[in-house]
Amino acid sequence: MAEDNNVEVPRLGIEPETFRLAAANMVDYVIKYYCDVDKRQTFPDVEPGFMRALLPESPPDHPESWQEVFSDIERIVMDGMTHWQSPGFFSYYPTSASYPSMLADMLCSGVPCIGFSWASSPSCTELETVMMDWLGKAIGLPECFIHGGHGPGGGVIQGTASEATLVALIASRSKTIRRELSRDPTQRTHDIVGRMVAYTSQCCHSSVERAGLLSLVEVRRLPVKDDGVLEGGVLKDAVLEDRKAGKIPMFVCVTIGTTSCCTFDDLEGIGKICEAEDIWCHVDAAYAGAAMVCPEFRFICNGIERATSFNFNPHKWLMVQFDCSAMWVRDSSDLVNSAEVNPLYLRHNTESSTIDYRHWQIPLGRRFRSLKLWFVLRMVGVEGLRSHIRRGVREAKHLEELVRSDGRFKVLFPVILGLVCIKLKRPGSSLENENDLNERLYDKIHEDRRIFIVPSTLNGVYFIRICTGSTHCSIEQVNKCWQVITEMAGQL
Ligand code: PLP
């Protein structure tokens, strides 16, 4: 008989009093983290595989104390972190942090539920519907996207912008199949899918191409000029060409705030073509959408009333912790009809009059993420969010001025929000011929480790992206960042 090594475990893993003390430690630790994060190196020095050497080969059989676990956070985890909340973080679009959002995450974890249907946790569904209306109104979305207790428009929280694009593309694929079959029922579904074409710009986020690969729909990345903007006319030519070749244009992903250069596609022009050609128009505003809380930045989305779906990530720039990707559709039945499967165990007797968000997303399970929106919208307020965005834009404008006042550098795209793209010039040289110089500059900055930035390219031109607006960014930090860049440039 096996030896009885049974360990008595409290139902919730540890005793309530231990939890209370540990939670207090954890809260203090997090507060201290934010107070001292400027003392940490933004990008870590660790080598790949470093973690295995720090951890035992197998998990412990017997419980360890909270103190043992707590003391290992610094020793094992923190040295290998890229500190997204550090003032030296100017690389990717930010990931938000705020105490109200953390409090909501505590509640979400503390009272777990899986809100896949209305019945699986009514508050989880209903708060989300109302919060998505609040948020939609806060960013000035047209009425057609607001649920208002009746639909057919409405919002849903996805985990990421990538999922939102995939959900939209799959819904568009299903809608197109239904439309084509109603025209000619003898067609085979996979022949229809094989003729479908989705469009986006060459500056789209990689998630759009992935959505195409995952849904077996061809994605055409259309060319942009050096301004990084996808123009309606370019789309129109591509659609006409494909229709002539017997293909079925069915989806466009418009980017508002491209990842590499924060440029804005011509939504107005593209939207008109989508309306005329019966094409789903999805707007990916993952980063830039947050700025629409400020009325003065809503112009970036002119033409939004023509979109079929719209998405942005409050978790990027709107003080809501990951994950919270807000997606709105003009007609939610497009999502519900795209992949509806209804086993008896998921059904409930109010389903005809309530929202079951499982039909609006890829997974079944979902967290109570709208708590984060509720806490942040109430404890920061829309005006508070506006000042947060405006602060990030001011920092970028300040950096732009610094760069423009230094004759060695060039600013590459209009600085509208929080991204500044720059190049070091080599007198008498073309932009492409300066690539090696800028690659060397980037390497030096990265090796120096005082700041963390990432490069990008457009049409063969390599440049350096500097993104402001993260939690601890400030004018003073931008000055320090610029000092590092100029110092490194001086050494070339
Ligand atoms: N779309 C754009 C324009 C982005 O900039 C990003 C990430 O920065 C994404 C999509 C991907 O976002 P997520 O990680 O939420 O999928």
Tell me what you see in this structure.
With 492 residues, this protein is of the alpha/beta class. Helix content is 41%, strand content 12%. It is built from 16 helices and 11 strands. A 7-stranded mixed beta sheet has the order 1-7-6-5-4-2-3, with helices on both faces. The protein has a 4-stranded antiparallel beta sheet with strand order 8-9-11-10. Helix 8 (206-215) links the parallel strand 2 and strand 3. The termini are far apart. The model has no long low-confidence stretch (mean pLDDT 95). Bound molecules: pyridoxal-5'-phosphate. The site of pyridoxal-5'-phosphate has 15 residues, from helix 6.
Main beta sheet: 7 strands, mixed
| Outline type | globular
Q: How does the helix and strand content classify structurally?
A: alpha/beta
Q: How much beta, percentage-wise?
A: 5-15%
Please state how the strands of the largest beta sheet are arranged side by side: 1-7-6-5-4-2-3
Small molecules in complex: pyridoxal-5'-phosphate
Mean pLDDT: 95
Core attributes:
492 residues; alpha/beta; 16 helices; 12% strand; binds pyridoxal-5'-phosphate
What topology emerges from the helices and strands here?
Elements: H1 16-36, H2 50-54, H3 66-77, H4 99-110, H5 122-138, E1 154-158, H6 161-183, H7 189-195, E2 196-201, H8 206-215, E3 218-222, H9 232-244, E4 248-255, H10 267-277, E5 280-284, E6 309-312, H11 314-317, E7 325-329, H12 333-336, H13 370-379, H14 381-404, E8 409-411, E9 419-424, H15 435-448, E10 454-458, E11 461-467, H16 475-490
Parallel strand pairs: 2-3, 2-4, 4-5, 5-6
Antiparallel strand pairs: 1-7, 6-7, 8-9, 9-11, 10-11
Helix pairs in contact: 4-13, 5-13, 6-8, 9-10, 14-16, 15-16
The structure holds pyridoxal-5'-phosphate.
